[in-house]
């Protein structure tokens, strides 16, 4: 599994989203944070903006839904053009049914866990998913400091993925930067969401390349990747 870097437009200029998407050409995905001011205490964007962004860029959209009632709303993001849709297990009424519906509509299905949510109760759900997102900050705002206490959870999740022989991507989101990405990769992550570390840089495209190089180097030395 190769390293993937997903710049988060939460840290971009919302008035210039098409230009900001172009600024990170070479990224694997654009990470789109959808917040409803209910599940998290912030309000960002919704289906119409995703539709417009999907028309404005060739980079696939990775939509992270920090919203209540994702069972109702998530399929609409696939229809809007998202290639990957992540729902929070804490908000989903029927996560297996929802993951299957997202897949049936043609997108990758992903499930997110807040920092206090353990992975172990959801082991049996993993085969239904294309990606699992471990939040390394409390969801709701960009620019937060990375929570080191999430590293053991990333390791345990990688062990479960290996135990079941799954081709499941393991994404981390929150405080990912040049100072933290190598630790995440060493623990088992292979998809990295970076917001301010990319869009706060003088050259966002170069920041993506540099983060990718760091993650690839750490992955090459990681015990989980060597055993793969």
From TrEMBL:
Cofactor(s) listed in the protein's UniProt record? Mn(2+); a divalent metal cation; Fe(2+); Zn(2+)
Cofactor binding, per record? Binds 1 divalent metal cation per subunit.
- Database matches in PROSITE patterns: RIBUL_P_3_EPIMER_1, RIBUL_P_3_EPIMER_2
> Which keywords accompany this UniProt record?
Carbohydrate metabolism, Isomerase, Metal-binding
Q: Which residues bind substrate?
A: 8, 64, 140-143, 173-175, 195-196
Q: Which Pfam families did the record assign? A: Ribul_P_3_epim (PF00834)
Gene Ontology molecular function: any one: D-ribulose-phosphate 3-epimerase activity
Q: Which PANTHER family match?
A: RIBULOSE-5-PHOSPHATE-3-EPIMERASE
Mind telling me which NCBIfam families this protein's record contains? PRK05581.1-4 (NF004076), rpe (TIGR01163)
Function recorded in the entry: Catalyzes the reversible epimerization of D-ribulose 5-phosphate to D-xylulose 5-phosphate.
Q: What is this protein called?
A: Ribulose-phosphate 3-epimerase
What species does this protein belong to?
Answer: Streptomyces achromogenes
């Amino acid at each position: 599994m190769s390293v993937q870097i997903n710049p988060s437009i939460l840290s971009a200029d919302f008035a210039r989203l098409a230009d900001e998407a172009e600024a990170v050409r070479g990224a694997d995905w654009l990470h789109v944070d959808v917040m409803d001011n209910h599940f998290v205490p912030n309000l960002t964007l919704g289906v119409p903006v995703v539709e417009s962004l999907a028309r404005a860029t060739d980079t696939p959209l990775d939509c992270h839904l920090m919203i209540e009632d994702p069972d109702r709303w998530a399929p609409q993001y696939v229809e809007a053009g998202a290639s990957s849709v992540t729902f929070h297990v804490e908000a989903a009424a029927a996560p297996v049914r929802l993951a299957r519906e997202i897949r049936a509509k043609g997108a990758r299905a992903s499930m997110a866990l807040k920092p206090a949510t353990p992975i172990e109760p959801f082991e049996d759900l993993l085969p239904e998913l294309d990606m699992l997102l471990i939040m390394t900050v409390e969801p709701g705002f960009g620019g937060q400091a990375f929570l080191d206490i999430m590293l053991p959870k990333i390791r345990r999740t990688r062990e479960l993925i290996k135990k079941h022989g799954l081709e499941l991507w393991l994404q981390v989101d929150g405080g990912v930067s040049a100072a933290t990405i190598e630790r995440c990769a060493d623990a088992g992550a292979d998809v990295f969401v970076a917001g301010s570390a990319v869009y706060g840089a003088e050259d966002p495209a170069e920041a993506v390349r540099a983060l990718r190089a760091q993650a690839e180097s750490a992955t090459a030395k990681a015990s989980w990747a060597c055993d793969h």
